[in-house]
Amino acid sequence: MKVGRRESFNAAHRLFKPEWSDEKNLAVFGKCSNPNYHGHNYVLETWVEGPIDPETGFVIDLKELKSIIREEISDKFDHRNLNLDVAEFKERIPTAENIAVVAWNLLRARLPQHLHLKVRLWETENNIVEYEG
Amino acid sequence: MKVGRRESFNAAHRLFKPEWSDEKNLAVFGKCSNPNYHGHNYVLETWVEGPIDPETGFVIDLKELKSIIREEISDKFDHRNLNLDVAEFKERIPTAENIAVVAWNLLRARLPQHLHLKVRLWETENNIVEYEG
Amino acid sequence: MKVGRRESFNAAHRLFKPEWSDEKNLAVFGKCSNPNYHGHNYVLETWVEGPIDPETGFVIDLKELKSIIREEISDKFDHRNLNLDVAEFKERIPTAENIAVVAWNLLRARLPQHLHLKVRLWETENNIVEYEG
Amino acid sequence: MKVGRRESFNAAHRLFKPEWSDEKNLAVFGKCSNPNYHGHNYVLETWVEGPIDPETGFVIDLKELKSIIREEISDKFDHRNLNLDVAEFKERIPTAENIAVVAWNLLRARLPQHLHLKVRLWETENNIVEYEG
Amino acid sequence: MKVGRRESFNAAHRLFKPEWSDEKNLAVFGKCSNPNYHGHNYVLETWVEGPIDPETGFVIDLKELKSIIREEISDKFDHRNLNLDVAEFKERIPTAENIAVVAWNLLRARLPQHLHLKVRLWETENNIVEYEG
Amino acid sequence: MKVGRRESFNAAHRLFKPEWSDEKNLAVFGKCSNPNYHGHNYVLETWVEGPIDPETGFVIDLKELKSIIREEISDKFDHRNLNLDVAEFKERIPTAENIAVVAWNLLRARLPQHLHLKVRLWETENNIVEYEG
């Protein structure tokens, strides 16, 4: 049984590699490398897989999962600049792929080991990534 | 090849365990345990996996799948109180997880054995479960 | 300038007129009159119209509008049975139209008089009502 | 007859009034005043009202309307920082309301006078503004 | 009070004016003039405005409105070629604007005179028209 | 890591097997066999799975994936009649399943071998297919 919870956060970011020239950044990342940043309404779907608890009928209490997502993701990423305000992206380009990896790591540390974790992240309506460790 | 069909049903429910006190029900299930019920527009995605029939180009005729879903799910769950009107939930708490299990069992019994079945159920825009037996 | 805020609430209801026989209720309201209730994920869009405050660039602070909606609507309707738990529907059938009127009245009383108010309510993806007093 | 066209742009912004202290900015604008910006996937619906041209069956050729929107809005706002990169917001706080006014002005200047113009802007799924001059 | 109902139909069409050359059709209508047709999942929102009936709490019974839409619109347009199969488009180009006018006329003839009628038609996610007579 | 890109195309089609009588076509395919075609707004989600490139933080540059999808899918299918205008359906019924197979084959040929490919196709909001070779 898998259980999914959808939460969103609104953040600024920029795709930029400091060891490259501005020209190379522009050639590789296009308008995503704009020096003054741009932003997105990110949507994160967190999927947890495990057995149904016969006591409660839940795999995990979604109220609890929501609290964990808010503490680990929303409180750190929402209304922030991912490049400047989030420690995990000091040395990692905040592509959708890397944001998914960071989100997965933060959530994995908070969930019981017997539950499998997958995250799906929408950067826009048309660009999506999925990661399960 | 997988084929999915989306159908919805509107139902009342309540999360409540009769062997627990009202206090414990409230502590575990929160406002979902409200004695007078609340409700949802549930969306059920039914996914069937199998080979394409070379005669028709179909895995399964979606008109037929839709009829099965309407008979097994909509006719039983739509505009009903899951706790009071649906036999399967007399002794099973109608959490999203348990509704998915019941829906899967009802649909499994009606589909040819060589087709694999998965169901995905949205309780709200943000709460989703997935079950494949 | 108009400003809209979308909030949702999940509630049970039943269309039923006590002075009519069960047969007449069934004839007029169909499966919506099911005695044990059914339910919906209602979505309410609250639209406020007025001039932009030159100080803030806001018509109304959406954080404040959100608080008013939560106090007047979510706290009263969410995870409730509209017929049994909400005083306004003791003598009024909770059709989508009447829910919109009640929501409009509750919100109107909390907003400054110079702001025009309109509400739009989705009962399902396909059934919508709109009311502006 | 009204014709609407939906386009999106992804931008960073910050709500901040330079003549106020940081404390006052935080008190009024909350987390939207974060100094390093945050961002959104803005969706702009452009509505044009006028008679149907009996020659073409169009109010306006949507291919042409799309070009105007891309030149006036997408090319100026998409993948930009509204505060730093867009001249119109040098002295105007980029609230959703003000973005709608600026977009309306830019589009109005490009459309024939006999066509009425309205814009609707989604900042998030839940926050919307509408402006018609 | 306004009440809206959303229904969809899937149809083929082509924008083409027989008195024009193929070159002119291509110049004006672009790829929409492809001789072998293309198609859309059209979504029609039908809005009816009037007083709430104090007996039922309805402006109009949505079950009845749905039947009218199915008879007048779905039965005539769904899984059809608008140019070839629908009499109303024999001499009228099936632009979204003209489809809205035809739908409005068909529905207007079936509704009580005291109810105001408006239709909104999505040709794609991004192209929308609205007509109220 | 999986990366998905959503693109749409609008096309006419008809489900029809030339070696069957019109009666049999109608019996099997129902209104989908209408001789004059009907149409859909198809939505194609293309999913590519592989390692993150440590240089760029990308599995695949989505700008590049988008170009491939436009060349292989949109340029061939959009605003076309699948039965008449697309070579791959001369001898293959354009069911959603077969469109997914054809799209997968076209995209597979253009992607590096170490990347796994899956496609998901929406024919309508309610009918979906998924194929991964």
Detailed description of the structure:
6 copies of one chain form a homohexamer. With 133 residues, chain A is an alpha+beta fold. Chain A has a single domain, classed as 6-pyruvoyl tetrahydropterin synthase/QueD (Tetrahydropterin Synthase, Chain A). Chain A is 31% helix and 29% strand. Chain A has a 5-stranded mixed β-sheet. The longest helix of chain A is centred in the middle third of the chain and has 16 residues, at 62-77. The two termini of chain A are 18 Å apart. The relative contact order of chain A is 0.21. Chain B binds chain C through residues 8, 10-13, 31-32, 34, 36-41, 78-81, 84-85, 124-125, and chain C through 8, 10-13, 31-32, 34, 36-41, 78-81, 84-85, 124-125. Strand 5 of chain C pairs antiparallel with strand 1 of chain E.
Architecture per CATH nomenclature, i.e. the level-2 architecture of chain A: 2-Layer Sandwich
Assign the structural class of chain A, choosing from mainly alpha, mainly beta, alpha/beta, alpha+beta, or little secondary structure.
alpha+beta
Strand content of chain A: 25-35%
Largest interface: A-D, 22 and 22 residues
- Per the CATH scheme, the topology name of chain A is Tetrahydropterin Synthase, Chain A
User: What order do the helices and strands of chain A follow?
Assistant: EHEHEHHEE
Short précis:
The structure is a homohexamer of 133-residue chains. Chain A has helices at 22-29, 62-77, 82-85, 96-108; strands at residues 2-13, 38-49, 80-81, 116-122, 127-131.
